[in-house]
Amino acid sequence: MADISCDIVVIGAGVLGLSVAAELTARGHDVRVIDPGRTNASAVAAGMIAPAFESVLDGVNAERALLLRDAAALWPDFARRVRIRLDETPAEWRGADAEEAAETLRALGFEVEPGAVRVATDVRLNAAAALYALKASLTSPVIKDHAEAVEPTADGWRVSTTEGAVLGNQLVVATGAYAALPGLPGGTTTLIDGVQPIAGQIGRVAAPLSDRVVRGREAYVAPGAGGALIGATMVFGSRDLTPDPEASERLATAAGALLGTDAPADIEWRAGVRGATPDGLPLAGPVGDGLHLALAPRRNGWLLGPLVGRVVADGIEGRPSGPHAAALDPLRPTLPAG
Ligand SMILES: Cc1cc2nc3c(=O)[nH]c(=O)nc-3n(C[C@H](O)[C@H](O)[C@H](O)COP(=O)(O)OP(=O)(O)OC[C@H]3O[C@@H](n4cnc5c(N)ncnc54)[C@H](O)[C@@H]3O)c2cc1C
């Protein structure tokens, strides 16, 4: 491959890298994305945009719930722009603690439909189709290659790949839960190496099981991938992608309980690894010298994609971003390495 030059290089074509690239492309920038094209966490995900029920599960405060709600509110416009279809059927909490969940949601400012605990904020998309749409919204195809190292140049960054090099004035690192690339500055390497991997297992059933996302504390069932998805485990500190039979059984039983049926059979299991910071929010924004991060959205990469895209694009353009940019700032003092 001959060397490629552009304004902005993005390493990583998960939801974060592609959301940043889509936002920058919409703003008229010349962007190139590099990714070898292997299955990533974004492709494995259930595709729930779930500010309300994620708030319940994580026991967040009102400020964090507002951030998640505001992030979700960016989705309809973003989806229209990049041609992602949103399934806006309200998700439902069917756990045994439904009344308690409804109370928590109302206290956090979410509107809960009377009767069944349904919230209009929590919608879903098909992750594989959405990744495809994000790629299709770019002016140039993703460069199917592995970035091996980066180095600063007189006017930007040089990314060495297996096949050549990509040069840009600014660089966005969106490499998921992988280790820091050689050549990044020491402080950035420390930040990236501080991202904790969390392996997660999800199952696919070929037949539809529910018309909407159904959630509880032990599992969820979501329409998706031409049938239904059952998730998901959280194995902290693990990058192991091997499905665990015990976890499979536990999730299947919990899914059956949510649906009021026997445990679904013939489930095909797979896993992905999410990256997480100590405070649970991504690293999104500039770290200096034309270098920007879009990493570690924990369980909410899809939910946070448009917000991260906007914050990183604003950082690249050197303009102030919205009220939540400080909470995502990679150099926020509340992070151990900040
Ligand atoms: C089972 C499961 C279910 C989930 N369900 C949901 C959900 O319903 N809703 C939700 O919001 N979130 C969900 N998540 C979380 C979500 O999937 C993640 O937060 C999100 O995918 C992380 O996106 P990312 O872009 O940071 O990383 P990734 O999707 O991992 O993408 C990183 C990319 O960087 C590339 N890369 C790494 N190193 C290099 C290199 N050196 N050169 C080139 N490319 C490189 C990789 O190939 C990869 O494609 C789920 C996660 C799992 C595991």
Describe the structure.
- The chain has 338 residues and is α+β, with helices and mostly antiparallel strands.
- Among the domains are: 4-42 and 132-195 and 278-328, FAD/NAD(P)-binding domain, CATH 3.50.50.60; 196-276, D-Amino Acid Oxidase, Chain A, domain 2.
- The chain is built from 11 helices and 18 strands.
- The protein has helices at 15-26, 41-44, 51-58, 62-73, 75-82, 98-107, 127-136, 186-193, 245-259, 301-317, 325-328, and strands spanning 4-11, 31-34, 48-49, 86-87, 91-93, 117-119, 123-125, 147-153, 156-161, 165-173, 196-205, 214-215, 220-224, 227-231, 235-236, 268-276, 283-288, 291-295.
- Strands 5, 6, 11, 12, 13, 14, 15 and 16 form an 8-stranded mixed sheet that branches.
- Helix 1 (15-26) packs across helix 10 (301-317) and helix 4 packs across helix 10 (301-317).
- The chain is globular.
- The protein binds flavin-adenine dinucleotide.
- Residues 11-17, 34-36, 38, 40-42, 44-48, 146-147, 174-176, 178, 181, 200, 202, 231-232, 272, 274, 295, 297, 299-303 line the site of flavin-adenine dinucleotide.
